[in-house]
Amino acid sequence: MIPDYVAEYIEHMKSSHRDILEAIHYWLRTSDIDEYMEDNSETFARAWLDGYVVEAEK
Length: 58
Known about the structure:
Layout: H1 4-15, H2 20-25, H3 31-39, H4 41-50
Helix pairs in contact: 3-4
């Protein structure tokens, strides 16, 4: 499960024909994406490769 903003980032990057390496090193990422990727790198990679479920809003 990933937050909505991370799902949007993944979809944006994929629709822009970028791969996971480009997504990880993309210099225009927002700070919330940076923080999520630092704290949840394996979850991000799994979501990119295997798909994901978006967390329900609190």
